[in-house]
Specification:
With about 375 residues, this protein is mainly α. It has a domain at about 20-170. About 70% of the residues lie in helices and about 5% in strands. It is built from eleven helices and six strands. The chain has helices spanning about 5-10, 20-55, 60-95, 95-130, 135-165, 180-185, 190-220, 225-260, 260-265, 300, 335-365; strands at about 170, 175-180, 280, 285, 290, 295. The strands form three sheets. The chain has a two-stranded antiparallel sheet with strand order 1-2. Strands 3-6 form a two-stranded antiparallel sheet. The chain has a two-stranded antiparallel ribbon with strand order 4-5. β1 and β2 (about 175-180) form a beta hairpin. α2 (about 20-55) packs across α7 and α7 (about 190-220) runs antiparallel to α8. The protein starts with a helix and ends with a helix.
């Protein structure tokens, strides 16, 4: 039985307890993911500011790095609390999953715990060492924070990707008898899910930091401090944006190919059809989408490279009614909206960067 078919069978027999469990898990994850993105990428931006400060003897960059490191410590501490809640929820809300496959998922969760402890320890050293360690020694004491954030995130994503593409274990008589930890960790879905999450974290953090200083610039604070803070966040995020568009496109196509039923339910595909339009926004009700922006044929055109309009447009599969989600008309490929929004965002970023560069040069002169 295909994995997506098994999902349909399981979904047809879900009890009323599943919806509250999903709601609680979603609420915790919705809050934690923001802190997780900042915890993954913010240490790198802090270290970038300190590197520039040490290399160029730039007092403003060093000042930014010191101020940001205080926020970094708070974010890591609060993120640890929400992450601990999630670890308890995995056992309390999904006891069947953890009872059956705990031996498989234990390895990536354990690795994530090790990297979290390293991150916490070196965060304390980094914050304590501002006035106690020489410049470059202090900088290198922060490198394990950035690396631990990335590797810890990869470990958590290994669990998520394994649930999309399970493998690396042997099951006999309903019990797990052997586990290949490398196949569990680096499963087929991890190839695109891991870089997708890491790039997303750096984009979210970079644009968030840039947004804070952009607001100050728009309010008339056109000094070098605000322009430097904006550039340190904006440049890494803008550079990574086109890579994220490619990775996101790859991820969406893989889900559409490997789990078409799940993808259809996730993307609200109401019925199997050809020439599927792209819908931006809107509300699905009674089999129709209201107030959405419709782009004819766009989803079918974007379903795969080299596919042209006409008879070769791929079918878009229907989400079965048994799934506990409400369908919305969308294509085989989720990336249409992502690619368009990402493209618009990237162009906007380039325009904003150009304008900011002119303003910065003007202030320096």
């Amino acid at each position: 039985m295909r994995f997506d078919a098994a999902v349909v069978v399981a979904a047809a027999h879900v009890s009323g307890e599943v919806v509250p469990a999903r709601a609680q898990m979603a609420a915790t994850l919705g809050f934690h993911i923001i802190l997780a993105c900042l915890g993954i990428a913010f240490p790198t931006i802090v270290l970038l500011a300190e590197f520039i400060g040490l290399r160029r003897h730039d007092e403003i960059s060093m000042r930014l790095a010191r101020h940001w490191s205080q926020a970094m410590g708070v974010l890591i501490a609060v993120g640890a609390v929400t992450g601990t809640v999630l670890s308890f929820e995995m056992g309390l809300l999904w006891p069947g999953l953890m009872r059956q496959y705990g031996a498989v998922l234990g390895f990536p969760f354990g690795v994530e715990g090790l990297f979290f402890f390293l991150e916490a320890i070196f965060t304390a050293i980094y914050l304590y060492g501002w006035r106690r360690l020489p410049g470059w020694a202090h900088f290198w004491s922060g490198m394990p924070i950035a690396l631990s954030g990335i590797l810890g995130a990869m470990s958590v994503i290994a669990v998520n990707s394994w649930m999309n593409q399970p493998g690396g274990f042997t099951e006999q008589g309903g019990r797990i008898t052997s586990v290949n930890v490398w196949q569990v960790y680096f499963n087929h879905a991890a190839i695109y899910e891991m870089p997708h999450m890491i790039l997303a974290a750096y984009m979210v953090t970079g644009f968030t930091v840039a947004g804070v200083y952009a607001a100050g610039i728009l309010r008339g604070r056109r000094d070098r401090y605000h322009h430097t803070g904006f550039a340190l966040g904006f440049v890494p995020a803008a550079v990574l944006t086109p890579f994220q568009i490619f990775v996101g496109d790859t991820a969406a196509r893989a889900i559409a190919h490997d789990q078409p039923v799940k993808f259809a339910s996730m993307e609200y595909v109401a019925r199997t059809s050809r020439n599927v339009p792209e819908w931006l926004g809107g509300v699905y009700a009674n089999g129709h989408i209201y107030t959405g922006l419709k782009i004819p044929y766009m989803d079918s055109l974007l379903a795969g490279p080299g596919r042209l309009p006409g008879a070769h447009r791929p079918l878009v599969h229907q989400a079965p009614q048994s799934l506990p989600c409400v369908p919305r008309a969308h294509p085989l490929d989720r990336t249409a909206g992502h690619a368009e929004l990402g493209g618009f965002g990237f162009v906007s970023c380039l325009a904003a960067g150009r304008a900011t560069g002119h303003a910065w040069l003007g202030s320096v002169r």
